[in-house]
Sequence to fold (630 residues):
Amino acid sequence: MQEKGTISIHTENIFPIIKKFLYSDHEIFLRELVSNAVDASQKMKRLAVLGEYKGDLGEVRVEVSVNKKKKTITISDRGIGMTAEEIKKYINQIAFSGATEFVEKFKDAGDAKEIIGKFGLGFYSAFMVADNVEIDTLSYQEGAEPARWICDGSTEFEITEGTRKERGTTITLHVNKDSVEFLEESRIQNVLTKYAKFLPIEVKFGEKDKQVEDGEDKEGKKKYKTVKEDNIINNTTPLWTKSPNDLTDEDYLNFYKELYPFSEEPLFWIHLNVDYPFELTGILYFPKLKKDFEVQKNKIQLYSRQVFITDETKDVVPEFLMLLHGVIDSPDIPLNVSRSYLQSDGNVKKINTYISKKVADKLSELFKKERESYESKWEDIGLFVKYGMISDEKFYDKAKDFVLVKNTAGKYFTMKEYEAHIEANQVDKDNNKVWLYATNVAKQDSFISDAVDKGYDVIVLDTPIDSHFINHMETKMENTQIKRVDADNIDKLVDKDEKRELVINDEQKEAVKGVFDKAINNKTYTVAIEPLAPSDAPVSVTMPEFMRRMKDMQATGGGGFNMFGSMPDNYNVTVNGNHKLVDKIIKATEEGDKEGLAKQAFDLALLSQGLLEGKALTDFIKRSTAILGE
Fold:
C-alpha cells in the first residue's frame, strides 16, 4: 500500500506554543506591541512622504498606559490603522507579516526598509500576560470604518464595529492573575526603558514632574515649582544614527553617560557606519579596565532598527572585544523568530570580522599619530590588544606592530624595538634572544637587580592574561625565549656558557648539600650547589619557568592546565658554592651551628621573595635578633 499527502497543522495546536513558549521572557510582550505601534507609525509617515496620504499627519507618537483598577494595559498609536479585512489578514493569519508586505510594496521608495516588523508573530506575545486582548482600530484609508477585534486567547475571535475616531490602533490587554506585576507603573517604566529607549517614534508613558522657575522670593533668590510634563521614554535620534562628521567629542562622551551613567569616561571610541555588504551602525567605547580581567561583560547592546534585542553579542562581536561598551545596530543580523537571540550565519561572521578590523585600524592610527597618548592609555588597552592577538590571527597580524611592552624603568617598546634593544647583550650561547620579565616588581626586586647589574633589561608582564600571551608570543617569535626573572639564577637564564669552578671539593659540596637538606627538611625544595660569583647571593629560591608558567595559566583559566594547578609547588634552592657563607658552614664545628647558618640563609632568600610568613617568619626574626645580640 502506498499513499502520499500533506501534513496538516491546526491553529489550535500551534497557538498555545506561540503564546507560552515562543518568548522565554514575558516582559517581551511590551517590546513587541510597542514595536508594532512604532512600525505602524513609521508606515504612516512614509506614506505621507510618498504622497500616498494627503490628510493631516498630526502628532505621530505611541502612548502606553496602565489602569490598575481595571487591570488593563493599553498601547495606542496614530499609525496607518487597519480595516476589518486587514485585521483578518494580519491578525488572524499567524505569521503573516504586514511589515514584510509593506516593504515589498514600497521597496523602491527609499527608506521603506526602516519598518521593524518581520515575522508577524509579535502580537501574540500579548496572550502571555492577558486573558483577553482587544484591538480598536481605524485605517488611514479614506472612507474606512472603525473595527474592533477581541479574543480570549483561544482560536476564536470576534470582529465588530469599532469606536475609534482617529486613524491608528489601540490595543488593550486585560491582564491575567499571574501577570499583575505588569500593572505596576514602575515595572512598565523599566521594561520600556530597556527596550524602547531609542525607538525612532516618540513613546509616551504618563507624566513626570519637572522643576520650573517661579519668580523670586523676598531675598531675590529664584523660586521653583513642580509642574507635570509628558514622560517621553525614548531618544528618537540616538548618536549612532548620526554622521560622525556632525559629532563632537562632547557628543560621544554625553552619549556614553546616557548609556552607562555610573562609569568613568571612556578612553576613546569607534563609530561604525557601513551599508555594504551588510548594514551596520553603532559606537564602541574603550572603557578603563586597568588589570581587572574579571570585568562584567554583556555591556554591548544589540539593536535592530533601534529596537533593543539583547546584550548577549558574543557571535557578533569578537570574544576579545566583549569587554568593550557601546551599541551595535543592524537589520542584517539574523534573529530567531521571537527576536530574542541571534542565529549564526554568513553575515554574522562578516560583521564580526569587520568589527575586529575597525578596532585594529583605530588602534594602529592612534599609535602612529599620537604615540605618547597611546602609551599613556596602554595600561587600560593592553588587555584588549593581547587578548585579541591570542584569539584572532588576523588581529594578531595587525596588532604585532602596535602591541607594547614596558620595562622596569618605565620605557615602552614595540616588539621590533625591544628585540633591537636587547640583541647586543641579551643573547645566550645558542644565539637565542632572551626576554626577561617580572610579574611583581616589588617581590622580584632582588632578581631584577641581579639582572640589571649584568646589564640586562627586564620587562613587566603582570596582567592576568600575560601568562597566555607569553606562551603565544613564543610560538610566533623565532630564536627567542621568554623567561621570568626569578625562574633561575641570572647566569642560567641567559646562559652564555661561561665556566666557573667551585672553590670547594666534591666531598665538601656533598656535605654542604646535606646540611641544607637537613635544615630545610622539606621535599618541596631541591638543593643544588652551584659555582657562582662570590658577590652573588648565598642562596636563591626559584620555581622552574615551565612549572611557574603552567600554574599561572591555570590560575587565569587556562583550559587543560588543571593538572599543574593541583600539583604541589616545587622549588629549586641554589646554594652559591663560592660564597663565604659556605666556607663558614664548612668550618663550623657544631652540626647545630651548620644547620643554623643554612636555615638562616634559606629563610633570608624566602623573605626576599615574600615567601616567608607565619611561624616561619616569626622564628626567623627571633633568630636574627639573637644573632644581633651576640
Observations:
- The longest helix spans residues 346-369.
- The chain has a mean pLDDT of 82.
- The chain is about 35% helix and 20% strand.
